[in-house]
Amino acid sequence: MAVEYKDYYKLLGVERSASADQISRAYKKLARQYHPDLNPGNKQAEEKFKEINEAYEVLKDPEKRRLYDQLGPNWQHGQNFQGAPGFENMHFSFNGQGFDGAGFSDFFETLFGGARSARGGRNNAGFGADPFGGFSARPRRGRDVEAELSLSLEDVARGGKRSVTIQTTGGPKTLEVNVPAGIREGAKLRLAGQGGDMPGGTPGDLFLRVRYLPHAHFRVDGDNLQSDIWLAPWEAVLGARVPVRTLDGEVELTIPPGTSSGRKFRLRGKGLGSAAARGDLLARVMIRVPEQINETERALWERLAESSSFSARQHRS
Description:
Layout: H1 8-12, H2 20-34, H3 43-59, H4 62-71, E1 92-94, E2 97-99, H5 106-112, E3 127-129, E4 135-137, E5 145-151, H6 153-158, E6 160-168, E7 171-179, E8 188-191, E9 206-212, E10 219-221, E11 224-231, H7 233-238, E12 240-246, E13 249-255, E14 264-267, E15 281-287, H8 295-307
């Protein structure tokens, strides 16, 4: 099967003459954009994330970049590499899954070598490639553990460090986790080495799945939030300035005269999401009438009803 050439410079969006600093900045920007924690369940983002990691693994290293540049698109007609120095025991983690060679493309493995068995297939038996040509057993690893991390919408909007207490065989253990601002519900946070123990080996990882706690004022719609504004009938007719609750505190909203129930006002940047791309708050107008009125109020309402030409059921064009 033909192995397709991959242009690592194009994947990172940089020129072939780009400096190491430019490559690093481009990689960090793309990694944030396609990180699986911010794109749960998005297979295209997952593949893109793996591609940019593969490109960065090569271009960040001067020697590997030099070898890659030497071969270029005609790499299949060049030297026969059996494995570049430093790639023999490569292992990286992606969204809780380990990749030992299999996490990279066939082009990468053909060019730089990978964990292969004596028969030429991928080695999936839990062994790592030995730089001297053989295979060495990796330490056994404990099982990964998954738990739920419940967050209020205020915590999601702010992000930052949170303390989490989990139950272990040795009793409760409190850990500190850094929550990215705007993290999506269902995303997983990985705490390396905090999973199941393995005597004589290495512990597994702990994955915290994010769950949003119900909120008394807001409903979640992706990165947007929805809420209700309650108006008295005269505020809707005459207009008003009313306080509106947001995750960042109260703001004042101007209600224009003649506002009907159900109309929505968009407060930009008051929703969820990262600081650079935060969603909006959609505030829906709801008109509330008094359940009980006195005789004076009743007379005024009756007078208004008699003198007004307005019909709520009349068709509006």
